[in-house]
Amino acid sequence: MLMLSNPNNPSSVAFEQQEIEKIIQDFDGLVVLDEAYIEFSDCPSFVSLVEKYDNLLILRTLSKAFGLAGLRLGFAIACERLIYELDKAIPPFSVSNVVAKIGAAALDDQEKVAVAIEQTKMSRQDFQAFLASLPDCQVLPSQTNFLTFTFKGAEQFYRRALTQGFHFKYYSKGILAGYIRMTTGRPEEMALLKELILESLHTD
């Protein structure tokens, strides 16, 4: 089994369709593609490929774009054969009736969700432009509801933000050492974060 996330977490970068298709074609086994952040992406979902490839299983969630993280509710999309086999492994009553009804109502309210997604994308683009204007700031191209970036005062900014009640990830080691992974928030929150970043730059 090969598991991939697209767009990727924590890099926030998305695959091209030809890259995904080559992986599916070349891999001798099940390819599980997690599309938890696909609603925020300008790239299309790979749902259309499930009938073409019988070794592709796509996972989706209502935790991100639908704002229902507390429900812990998601679903799988695949060809009929894979869904049949997957159904054998799912325990009975794994999702309560209440959770199922809330999830169904959320999926039916696509107009409201679309507005929230557009607001998130605008917030992301605005903050990404702000980061790009900073000296020596590196921002990964985001296709999600979060940004992954670094700059000279990144660690100082992270510690300042913690004192203001913000919680996000600072990587102290690994391939993303020195980078911050931060989910976009409300306009007033993003404005305060901009101020904290500028303060960190001036005191570095």
From TrEMBL:
<dbReference type="InterPro" id="IPR004839">
    <property type="entry name" value="Aminotransferase_I/II_large"/>
</dbReference>
<keyword id="KW-0663">Pyridoxal phosphate</keyword>
<dbReference type="InterPro" id="IPR050106">
    <property type="entry name" value="HistidinolP_aminotransfase"/>
</dbReference>
<dbReference type="InterPro" id="IPR015421">
    <property type="entry name" value="PyrdxlP-dep_Trfase_major"/>
</dbReference>
<dbReference type="InterPro" id="IPR015424">
    <property type="entry name" value="PyrdxlP-dep_Trfase"/>
</dbReference>
<comment type="pathway">
    <text>Amino-acid biosynthesis; L-histidine biosynthesis; L-histidine from 5-phospho-alpha-D-ribose 1-diphosphate: step 7/9.</text>
</comment>
<dbReference type="GO" id="GO:0030170">
    <property type="term" value="F:pyridoxal phosphate binding"/>
</dbReference>
<dbReference type="InterPro" id="IPR015422">
    <property type="entry name" value="PyrdxlP-dep_Trfase_small"/>
</dbReference>
<dbReference type="GO" id="GO:0004400">
    <property type="term" value="F:histidinol-phosphate transaminase activity"/>
</dbReference>
<protein>
    <recommendedName>
        <fullName>histidinol-phosphate transaminase</fullName>
        <ecNumber>2.6.1.9</ecNumber>
    </recommendedName>
</protein>
<dbReference type="InterPro" id="IPR001917">
    <property type="entry name" value="Aminotrans_II_pyridoxalP_BS"/>
</dbReference>
<keyword id="KW-0032">Aminotransferase</keyword>
<dbReference type="Pfam" id="PF00155">
    <property type="entry name" value="Aminotran_1_2"/>
</dbReference>
<comment type="similarity">
    <text>Belongs to the class-II pyridoxal-phosphate-dependent aminotransferase family.</text>
</comment>
<keyword id="KW-0028">Amino-acid biosynthesis</keyword>
<dbReference type="GO" id="GO:0000105">
    <property type="term" value="P:L-histidine biosynthetic process"/>
</dbReference>
<keyword id="KW-0368">Histidine biosynthesis</keyword>
<keyword id="KW-0808">Transferase</keyword>
<feature type="domain" description="Aminotransferase class I/classII large">
    <location>
        <begin position="1"/>
        <end position="189"/>
    </location>
</feature>
